[in-house]
Design a protein that fits this description.
about 325 residues; alpha+beta; 60s Ribosomal Protein L30, Chain: A; 6-stranded mixed β-sheet; 4 helices; 20 strands; globular
Length: about 325
Amino acid sequence: MAGLVFLTTADDAGVPRETARILGGARLGAGLPAADWPEQGIAAALPGIAPTALRERWLSPVDCQQGVDEGIAWRRTGDVLYGVIELDEADFAGDARTPLQAASETAYRRIFRLLDAQGLPELWRVWNYLAAINEESHGLERYRQFNLGRQDAFLACHRGATGNVPAACALGLRDGPLSIAFLAGKLPAVAVENPRQVSAYHYPTDYGPRSPTFSRAVLAYPPGQEILFISGTASIVGHRSMHVDDVAAQTRETLTNILAVLGEANRQSQQAGFRPDQLLCRAYLRHADDWPTVAAVIEEMLGPVELCPVVADVCRADLLVEIEAMAMAAR
């Protein structure tokens, strides 16, 4: 069986007419109708590019199995599964926890139950989006509430909260539900950390009562492939934010971190050949007007990589930009 293909388009060019071969993906921007496969909707502006919306798709070489379990729309091809769950915080208003904490824990518990039932227990990559990520409610910043719920689910479902945890990002949108998309498989991913940073799951309590539960990157192994997923990365050295109010300097520091992670990944990789110019990147900007500056620094440091800009709030209020990346190779 040939491997997965990742495709980003403004229309259906290059996409197989047999939609049963679409494992899942994301819809970015505004103006595209919802798909009939698992698709995460990211309602945010895409600055500096002509289309107002883009579709990302994971394509399978064969038809996928599909289902809906506990609100998770999922598809599976062989030993790889992609799923999306959205939960409305208002449905958890009567919970003893904060609504966001309760929704986050519920979503991850459901994800782990699905993966166990499918015999694909290894969570590789997760994309988290929530409203007003930097605002405070119930006496605690909302991102910190999310981290409480996420880690509670990891521990309750007998997943470790340190070490071999998935690559992930968590971004803030203006409004909308808690939205989580994920890619999982049968084989464990290899966690990759950044020598320039404290591992996120070891952050001190300055950043909240529970640390974020993610690895800086992972190497995942669908049949015949090796995929490098680099988590959302920002201008952090050690555990401290750097270059406050300077978007160009923050972007350079962010990319220095990505290149450090890339070097560590190549050291652990079966291929040891991922290059900066092979990366597929998504850049999150707090302010749309910063896009020309961010784009110029990315081209300077990485080359002409495939790049999608998205206006979203980074998990720390003093950070202006976050970049995630991916690269794929045959094994």
